[in-house]
Amino acid sequence: MRILLGTLVLWLLLAVGVAQARTVGFETLSVPVAGDRPLAAMIWYPADAPERAVRLALYHQSVAVEAPVAGRGLPLVVISHGAGGANTDHFDTARALARAGFVVAAITHTGDTRGDRSRALRITERPGELIRLIDYMTTEWAGHHAVDAGRVGAFGFSSGGFTVLGAVGGEPDMAPAARHCAEHPHFYDCQVLRGLSGATAKPPLVAHDPRIRAAVVAAPALAFTFAPDGLANVTVPVQLWRAEWDTVLPQPYYAEAVHRMLPKAEYRVVPGAEHFDFMAPCSEALAKAAPPICVGLIDRAAFHKTFNTAVVRFFQRTLR
After folding, report:
1. How confident is residue 15, by pLDDT bands cut at 50, 70 and 90?
2. What are the DSSP calls for 139-173, one per residue?
3. CB contact at 8 A, 165 and 230
4. pLDDT tens across 181-190, in order?
């Protein structure tokens, strides 16, 4: 009996050691799109290889670059960034998910980046790009055999929140945008719209994907376009986040509007937070390059420990 217990204890210690030794793999790639430019993607995933510090745009991260994927049957989470953003914007949340056993893929939406706003008004095309990413990750990515295509989640911030709500069944009506901006010309989204050109007379229909089984939506943009019943077909679990002092997308037109339409969503309001606090904690380089993104009243690094833990636990619970 003592030998058996000793063996069991040793096995448990080894198991814990393996779990604690798990690292985060990372790679960049291009996702081909028929008849269009490829989508720039970044992938984080469980690995067993040593990590090293590498530069990531204006950030640094610790990852095992191009290491083999560790594990099989891993759930997938895809990430959609905000307007004018990039696939690096939520890297810390992606790393937290990968360390917890998820494969995470983030794209840069074509024509809606800091250096290219040529398609920023074509927001209804974004869900289709997210769906293309899911297709790629589950059938074409070199590590796709490690992915469980039956366990897919999506994370979206700001315009990415709109993207995710559309992908899980939301049907926006873009017609009210003109009236909304006439009434609220000082709102950030309306200022952006005035500075852009090239809107189509009739936006393309939003693409949906039933493979997405759970969604995290933070500070969703254009949420008023789903009112009054544009989210009636959203049946997946949703974790909805709002910054208490969101001056970019002020209430009650955005996250609060989604909450009214999805009253069963797990709704979290972050005290004292601003819009960009859902993005990764700022590096010194980002603070110099884009000060408005980094100005806030809360300790963003401390908040992200809580935020990332909550996101990980939500997906662990909903993508079992």
Report:
1. very low
2. HTSTTGGGEEEEEEEEEEETHHHHHHHHHTT----
3. no
4. 899 988 888 8
Confidence at residue 154, expressed as pLDDT on a 0 to 100 scale: 99
Domain assignment present for 6: no
What's the rounded mean pLDDT across residues 1-11? 42
Q: What is the mean pLDDT of residues 125-143?
A: 98
Is 16 a domain residue? Answer: no
At which residue do the structure tokens 């002020």 appear?
250
Q: Is residue 149 part of a domain?
A: yes
- Domain assignment present for residue 154? The answer is yes
What CATH number is given to the structural domain containing 119?
A: 3.40.50.1820
The token pair at 121 is 């008004």
DSSP state letter for 123: G
3 state DSSP class of 72: coil
Q: Phi/psi zone of residue 169: left (φ > 0), alpha (ψ -120 to 50 degrees), beta?
A: left
**Cα separation of 207 and 195, whole Å?**
27
4 pLDDT band, cuts 50/70/90, is: very low
Domain count, the chain: 1
- Show the domain range for 284: 21-318
